[in-house]
């Protein structure tokens, strides 16, 4: 495989090359990213966790959601699959929990017992500044001994 121009695997490769590559592959340290951890943009920045309507994005102050709760902004049902933290379009029945039947409408209210409000990280929240807020005081603080 090393005498070819490209490193893509093909029909000419045999199992020995594959086994050698697996042995040479570095092992990960086993650190798993926890669910909901920020990745990429926003990594390490202070964020606030909030519940927002999946349809309009309106932030709700009280995350306690009953089966008949609706959004105050758009009127859509909040106890729905799209507002649930277990909602996953790639999973079976589009839910990460072991449900027995598919929920027909993901945006309408349902009586799912696994419902957990989806917590969204608000990246717009700015941390309170530790230093002086006055630009002149901040400049003077740079050269202070």
Structural description of this entry:
By secondary structure, the chain is low in regular secondary structure. The protein has a domain at 46-123. Helices cover 12% and strands 7% of the residues. The protein contains 2 helices and 3 strands, in the order H-E-E-E-H. It has helices at 15-24, 135-142, and strands spanning 48-52, 59-60, 120-122. A 3-stranded antiparallel β-sheet has the order 2-1-3, with no helix packed on it. A hairpin with a 6-residue loop joins strand 1 (48-52) and strand 2 (59-60). The longest helix is centred in the N-terminal third of the chain and has 10 residues, at 15-24. The termini are far apart.
Using only C-alpha atoms, the radius of gyration works out to 25 Å
Which regions contain 5 or more consecutive residues with pLDDT less than 50?
Answer: none
Total count of helical runs of at least 4 residues: 2
**How is the biggest beta sheet arranged?**
3 strands, antiparallel
Order of helices and strands: HEEEH
Helical fraction = 10-25%
Number of DSSP E strands: 3
Mean pLDDT score: 77
Strand order of the largest sheet: 2-1-3
Distance between the termini: 62 Å
Basic shape = flat
Report strand %.
Answer: 5-15%
Structural class, by secondary structure, is: little secondary structure
Key terms for this structure?
2 helices, 3 strands, flat, three-stranded antiparallel sheet, 145 residues, little secondary structure
